[in-house]
Design brief:
- There is one protein chain.
- The chain is of the alpha/beta class.
- The chain has one domain: LmbE-like (Rossmann fold, 3-Layer(aba) Sandwich).
- The chain is built from 11 helices and 7 strands.
- A 7-stranded mixed β-sheet has the order 3-2-1-4-5-7-6, with helices on both faces.
- Helix 6 links the parallel strand 4 and strand 5.
- Helix 4 runs antiparallel to helix 10 and helix 5 crosses helix 6.
């Protein structure tokens, strides 16, 4: 993409708050991917908006310790909305629903065939329809940085993959006055990142910490089946120091009580133990319209690198 095909990348003026938009598929995704980073940036004065593409209507109740399952299932969408509201309050972020219906995670049958997705769910709604909804929010909130999932969705859930597709399309379209007229004044975010939560180096560090503590590791099976792919090592571009907000991350995740078992293996390591072995949340810089701000360092340490305190120069997208 060249600058001739879009309006300038909007970057903050002196004294203007930095703005971060995190685009997620379901309520609870925001608390398991990038939550401590968001809480840190809120603490520093940035404005942070979580956009949740679906209501999580087809999610199962994964926390079997919850009482009164039938009553919860009878109104699961409303319950998950309340959980999302509480998690947003804990993290200090604003929140918006994109308004689409959870696609569910269909199981492949014995012949390896995946059944058709439900009618009108997020993953089958035309891309231009869901993109228009996200462009409207981008133009209203005017984020300098967007975070989302990679081309595999982080894991191959149809809604996660669609979230990637919608986010990428909206990043390209929001700054173009010829795209989606009637959805607000054009606004071009400067950078877009993929969450890189479960990359190999971090998984190894947390797995070894579990073993050292003598607790069950939820990472062993994943490491045993791990297949290194070309380019994996180069994906890690950005490591955001945010260990001081790991407790907020855990509290926000536990707010999604239908999805998260407080006694589950993901909580076997304390926040202190996690801080000791891996105090960052990690990302891949996927799109950028500003100059490289690493100044020779291997990794960025800030999603707003190059955007503070003075806007960076605009270059062709990477």
């Amino acid at each position: 993409m060249s600058l001739s095909s879009l309006s300038r990348a909007f970057v903050p003026s002196p004294g203007e708050p930095l703005r971060l938009m995190a685009v997620h598929a379901h309520p609870d995704d925001e608390s398991s991917k990038g939550a401590a980073s968001m809480a840190r940036y809120v603490h520093e004065g940035a404005e942070v908006l979580v956009v949740t593409c679906t209501g999580g209507e087809r999610g199962d109740i994964l926390n079997k310790t919850l009482p009164d399952h039938p009553a919860i299932l009878a109104d699961l969408p409303a319950v998950r909305q309340l959980e999302m509201q509480r998690a947003a309050e804990i993290l200090g972020v604003s929140h918006a629903w994109l308004g689409f219906i959870d696609s569910g995670l269909p199981e492949v049958d014995a012949n390896g065939v995946m059944p058709a997705l439900p009618d009108e769910c997020f993953a089958v709604v035309p891309l231009e329809v869901s993109t228009e909804a996200l462009v409207r929010i981008v133009r209203e909130f005017r984020p300098h940085v967007i975070t989302t999932y990679d081309e595999n969705g982080g894991y191959p859930h149809p809604d996660h993959i669609r979230t990637h597709e919608v986010s990428m399309r909206a990043f390209e379209a929001a700054g173009d006055p010829g795209e989606f007229p009637g959805t607000g004044e054009p606004w071009q975010p400067a950078k877009l990142y993929y969450h890189l939560t479960f990359h190999k180096l971090r998984i190894i560090a947390l797995h070894e910490a579990c073993l050292a503590q003598g607790v069950e590791s939820p990472f062993g099976e994943r490491l045993e089946s791990w297949v290194d792919k070309p380019g994996d090592a180069e994906r890690l571009t950005t490591m955001v120091l945010c260990g001081d907000w790991f407790e907020a991350r855990e509290e926000a995740l536990l707010a999604h009580a239908t999805q998260v078992d407080p006694e589950g293996p993901w909580f076997h390591l304390s926040a202190d133990d996690q801080r000791a072995v891996w105090p960052t949340e990690d990302y891949q810089l996927a799109r950028s319209l500003i100059a490289d701000a690493r100044h020779g360092a291997q990794f960025e340490d800030d999603l707003f690198a190059g955007l503070r305190p003075v806007a960076g120069s605009i270059e062709n997208a990477s």
